[in-house]
């Protein structure tokens, strides 16, 4: 998340916004096989930045959790950097960092209304 990278887009965003958020259309909506083929093609070009994948497929409720990773993200014969991200907000405004099923617009709005959001990456 702190390195230059590209994330496969699951949203139907305008191309300018996708570029700003470092999203790339790799065929996520076309199915897992299309995503694998497009990701392999993308990774075969050494000039491209690395892919940021989320093999767990979801966020937690904000409590401590153990999540099962899907093995598909580890099939690309490249180096894998596993990172854990903890999000903490002030208790004055008890808003969860993300709600399962929420849109990216809702998450962005809650980010603007929270006075302090601290991200810890391990």
Any chance you could write out the topology, listing elements then pairs?
Blueprint: E1 7-8, H1 15-20, E2 23-24, H2 32-44, E3 85-89, H3 104-113, E4 117-121
Parallel strand pairs: 1-2
Antiparallel strand pairs: 3-4
Please describe what this structure looks like.
The protein is α+β, with helices and mostly antiparallel strands and 122 residues long. The strands form two sheets. A two-stranded parallel sheet has the order 1-2. A two-stranded antiparallel ribbon has the order 3-4. The protein folds into two domains: 82 residues, no CATH class; 39 residues, no CATH class. The radius of gyration is 16 Å and the shape is globular. The protein is built from three helices and four strands.
What features would you highlight for this structure?
122 residues, alpha+beta, two-stranded parallel ribbon, two-stranded antiparallel ribbon, 11% strand, globular, Ancient ubiquitous 1-like protein
